[in-house]
Amino acid sequence: MSSAPVQRRAVVIEDDDDIRGLLVVVLRQLDFDVVEAPDGLAGVETVRDIQPELVTLDVNMPGIDGIEACRRIREFSDAYIVMLSARTAELDRLAGLDTGADDYLTKPFSPKELQARVRAAFRRARPAPAPAEDPRVSDENTRAAAVQQSLLPQEKVRLEEFDVAGAFRPTRSVGGDFYDWYQTPDGMHLTFADAMGKGMGAALIAATVRAVMRSVADSPDIADAFRSASATIASDLDQSGSFVTMFHGRLDSASGMLRYIDAGHGLGLHVPAQGAARRLVSAGPPVGILEDQQWPAAELQLEPGDSLVIVSDGVLDAHDSLEDFIRNVEKAARSAGTSDEVCAALLELAPAATAEDDVTAVVVRRTAGSTANGAIRH
Length: 378
What we know:
Elements: E1 9-13, H1 17-28, E2 33-37, H2 40-50, E3 54-58, H3 66-73, E4 80-85, H4 90-99, E5 103-106, H5 111-123, H6 135-150, E6 158-160, E7 162-169, E8 176-183, E9 187-195, H7 199-215, H8 222-240, E10 244-252, E11 257-263, E12 268-271, E13 278-280, E14 298-301, E15 307-311, H9 313-317, H10 322-335, H11 339-348, E16 359-366, E17 373-375
Parallel strand pairs: 1-2, 1-3, 3-4, 4-5
Antiparallel strand pairs: 6-17, 7-16, 8-9, 9-10, 10-11, 11-14, 12-13, 12-15, 15-16
C-alpha cells in the first residue's frame, strides 16, 4: 500500500503582521504547510528545525536583517529562498541574490506573481508520482467544471468602434477563473476574477462573486460599487479561507474611457496603437485579505487602435519572468487581427500540454475605423 505524498513546507519570515498573513494565505493556496516567524533570528531557527522546501524572507527586519538571515540559512539549507523588500535598487537585488537568495521581489508585490515564480521554481524539480485519483474527487471536478463554464457570459453585446472577445481553457484541476460582461446604456461592464483554490469550492466562490458584482451594476460610482460588493462576499471568503483577485471595469463606449479597479490581479495590459505596452498596476490586495480595505479607481483612455488585454495567471505561469510575459502578451496582441484571434494567440502562450492551471483571456480593442461595429464573442 503506497503512502500519501509528503506535504511541502514553507517558512514565512516577515515582521509586518498584515504582509505575513497575506504570504501565509498565498502559499497555503499552493498546498504548502506554512510556519510563520516574526523576525530574522526566529526565522533562521525555524528553518533549521523544520527544514522547509521554501522560505520567503523580508529584508528589513529587527535584530538581523534579511541579508544576514539568508547567509545563515544557506549554511545548512538548500531551500528555495524568495526575498521580499521595498528596496528597488539594482545593488540591493544583487546583494540578496549574491547572499544566496534564489529570487527577489519588490514590495508591494503581486500574489499571483509570487505564486507563479514559486510554481516555476518547483517545476524544475522531478515531480513525485501522482497518486491514483479518487473517483469522488473526479466527480467533484466534473461538477465544478460545469459551474465554471456557466459563469461565462452568454449574451452578445454590440458596441460601435469596439471589438471584444474572451476565451477560456480549463485544465483537469478546476479552479476559480471566470470573466463576465454585460451591456449598459453607456457601454459595458467587465469583470475578470480568480477565486483561489481548486474544485467545487473555488467554483462556488466564483459564482458568488459574479452574482454580487452584477448586483451592484446600478451603483453609479465604481469605487462605491466595488467596496459594497467586497463587503458582501467577505464572510463567504472568510469561512472558506479563500480570497479573490479581480479586475472590474466600466467602459463608456462613446468616449473610450474605461474606469477600473484592480484588486490584486495585476495581469491587465494596455497595448496602445503606438508605443510600448503598459502593465496596469493593482490598486490594492485581493478581496478577502484585509478587513475594511478600499480600492481606488483608475482611468484608462482607449484611443482608436488601442487594446486592453487581461489574462489569468495560467499565462503568467508559462513564462520564466515578468518581462518575458509582458513582451509575449504584447506581441500576441499586435500580431493578430480580431479580438477573437488575439485571444487564441494568448492561449497559445500557455500550451495545453504543459499548462498547470486554467488559462483565460479577455481583449477589449477600440477599432481604428469610426464606423466599426464589433460584437462581444466567446
